[in-house]
Design the sequence.
């Protein structure tokens, strides 16, 4: 897998929401499903009883995590 780089915003959100780096990387590497929106991708992964959304973009040699957060079922109802 490519190197994963977190924007300052994504790092802050991960810390605030107590989401570990390994969890984010695992979501990107092995998502339950992915939604493509232009150049950005939204990777979703069920983690225990929650659903994590990681918004990222992929470059030639690395991945940039833009933001991440827990979502409710309404946002994902068309994909689950």
Sequence:
């Amino acid at each position: 897998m490519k190197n994963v780089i977190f924007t300052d915003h994504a790092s802050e959100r991960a810390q605030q929401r107590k989401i570990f780096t390994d969890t984010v990387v695992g979501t990107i590497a092995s998502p339950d499903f992915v939604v493509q929106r232009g150049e950005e991708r939204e990777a979703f992964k069920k983690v225990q009883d929650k659903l994590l959304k990681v918004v990222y973009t992929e470059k030639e040699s690395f991945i940039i995590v833009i933001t991440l957060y827990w979502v409710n079922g309404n946002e994902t109802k068309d994909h689950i």
In short: DSSP finds three helices and five strands in the chain. The mean pLDDT is 93. Residues 11 and 78 are 28 Å apart (CA to CA). The beta strands are 3-6, 33-37, 40-47, 50-58, 62-71.
